[in-house]
Amino acid sequence: MKLLKNISLIICVAILLWSCGSSPINNTKTQKEAPVVIANDSLEYEIIIIDPGFTFYLASTAHPEGFYSQNYMEARNRSWVLTWNQRAQSPSRFNSNIYENIIDYQANIDYGYEVNYKLFNYFLFAQRKYKMNLGGGFRNGRIN
Q1: Residue 48, Cβ neighbours under 10 Å: how many?
Q2: Domain segments of the chain: what residues?
Q3: Contacts of 141 (CB under 8 A, 6+ apart)
Q4: How far apart are alpha carbons 104 and 124 in whole angstroms?
Q5: Residue 26: enclosing H or E segment and its boundaries?
Q6: Which of 9, 74, 102, 141 is the most exposed place for a label (fewest CB within 10 A)?
Q7: What is the DSSP string of 85-102?
Q8: What are residue 47's phi and psi, to 5 degrees?
């Protein structure tokens, strides 16, 4: 249950990002897209991403599941969550409309492949959409 409380912070971030406006990645989409649900039932863990364009990005731009190993994505997610959280704690230096909440991603928890895959791709999507760099070899919308 503690994880569900912590996930609410992530959901708030997703809602905030969703409210920031249309996506330059997907300008032609006219109908509302369904939210992407990231869940691991055995951990009672769920993230709902409603950022416009992410569903399209996941289906059209993201590498397919299996392209990256879970270990690789976990390492990137840990790094990107640290950067995200540092920025969320510095609203005077970073856009508080993007980095509104801290993300509780714990390195000692195995969230499974699907959770890591979708979170990893959300970070790629957000870096591209909001023209930000969370570090770790991301440039020009691609991982180096």
Answers
A1: 14
A2: 2-143
A3: 124, 127, 128
A4: 18
A5: none
A6: 141
A7: HHHHT-TTTS-TTTS-S-
A8: -125, 135
Residue type, 98: I
pLDDT in tens, the chain (144 residues): 555 455 554 554 555 444 444 444 444 444 556 666 666 666 566 677 777 899 999 999 999 999 999 999 999 999 999 999 999 999 999 998 888 778 888 889 998 998 899 999 999 999 999 999 998 765 555 554
Print burial letters for 70-101: b (CB count within 10 Å at least 16), e (below 16).
Answer: beebbebbeebbbbbbebbeeeeebeeebbbb
Look at residue 1 and give its three-state secondary structure.
coil
Is-contact 137 143, C-beta < 8 A?
Answer: yes
Helix (H, G, I), strand (E, B) or coil at 28: coil
Are the beta carbons of 46 and 38 closer than 8 angstroms? yes
